[in-house]
Amino acid sequence: MAAEPRLLVSLEPSEELTSALRTHLPEVPWAYVGQADAGPWPEAEAILTSNVPRELAAWTSRATPRLRFVQSLWTGLDRFPFDRFPPAVLIAGNVGAYAPAVAEHAVALLLALAHDLRGNHDLVQSGRLRPTSPRRDLGGGVVLLLGFGEIAREVVRLLRPWNVRVRGVSRRGDPAPEAERMYPASALPDALGEADFVVDSRPLTTLTRATIDRDALERMRPTAVYVNVGRAGTVVERDLFEHLRAHPEFRAGLDVWWGEDYSTGTLRLRFPFANLPNFLGSPHNASESHDEGSRGFDSAARNLARFFSGQTPAGLAPRAEYAPGA
Ligand SMILES: NC(=O)c1ccc[n+]([C@@H]2O[C@H](COP(=O)([O-])OP(=O)(O)OC[C@H]3O[C@@H](n4cnc5c(N)ncnc54)[C@H](OP(=O)(O)O)[C@@H]3O)[C@@H](O)[C@H]2O)c1
Prior knowledge:
- The protein is an alpha/beta fold.
- Helix content is 27%, strand content 16%.
- The chain is built from 9 helices and 14 strands.
- It has helices at 15-24, 52-55, 99-114, 117-125, 150-159, 188-193, 214-219, 237-246, 292-308; strands spanning 7-9, 30-32, 46-49, 69-72, 90-92, 142-146, 165-170, 181-184, 197-200, 225-228, 251-254, 260-261, 266-267, 279-281.
- A 7-stranded parallel beta sheet has the order 8-7-6-9-10-11-14.
- Helix 1 packs parallel to helix 9 (292-308) and helix 3 (99-114) crosses helix 5.
- The chain is elongated and about 70 Å long.
- The chain starts with 6 loop residues before the first strand and ends in an 18-residue tail after the last helix.
- Bound molecules: NADP nicotinamide-adenine-dinucleotide phosphate.
- NADP nicotinamide-adenine-dinucleotide phosphate (NAP) is lined by residues 75-76, 95-96, 98-99, 102, 147-151, 169-171, 185, 201-205, 207-208, 229-231, 255-256, 284, 286-287, 315.
């Protein structure tokens, strides 16, 4: 008889996922639970999931009395239904799994905006050489990373050849070897005022929601470049649109959006950002590199292995910061 599963996998196990589990959790019996299954699984201690409402529709916590850990395949937990799991269950995002791809995309947006590639292309398309828009060279500039985590550190690594001056904002502002200065979240307005370039890769929580509002934008330098690859909910949509319109020298790029509807593959925009010449967008595809799938599975399986070997898993969500509606 097969051993009772200690790990439940709620997403369909592809060959890549199975291989990651075999590599990192060779001793842990696991089972795939389809939507129709509700248990019980008396020995299950952990769940690997990519979409709780869809994949675990029939499951309730009574089916897994020994559950202590849930690993999400995705990094961001702002849509995660925490209230489906008892308070003592640890929930982890797949922190850092997609950082190299997302950071490369953030740097692409940053450079494209700094060099106004969109404006340059428009000039060429209309058969004109001049007037060109002013270029913002990265070299020697102050780059401020909002959220100094895995994506931010990778951005810093990629920007090293430009000799930029690195500053960062994290919750407590603890020193980081890569940064000449770190700020606590409470000093966000001051930090924004000192930066030439701002890259936002913060998670969306009760503490970060709507923190880039009109006041924060007014604090930024009029010629600053702002890129967000974290979550759009950290920004007030109307305030960003109006700031871009009122400050043509300010430039912004977003990979993440307020109205993302993956069921239809559509973006719901309340303001015509794409018509603004000082704006550049991408459709939340920063993480879509050729090895995104295997990186995600590998990183999730490694974190599950930490849990099963008694170590503290990485990327544990501070549940209080993800209160309903966060
Ligand atoms: N565009 C995409 O396709 C894509 C892909 C992956 C991830 N993401 C987004 O990017 C986020 C970060 O991913 P990651 O891998 O870099 O995760 P990470 O390593 O956990 O980095 C996030 C950092 O944000 C900091 N932070 C948390 N709350 C903060 C606050 N109130 N103020 C300032 N900093 C705060 C944390 O630092 P402290 O704990 O020290 O405060 C943490 O180091 C994810 O949560 C997700 O929303 C987007």
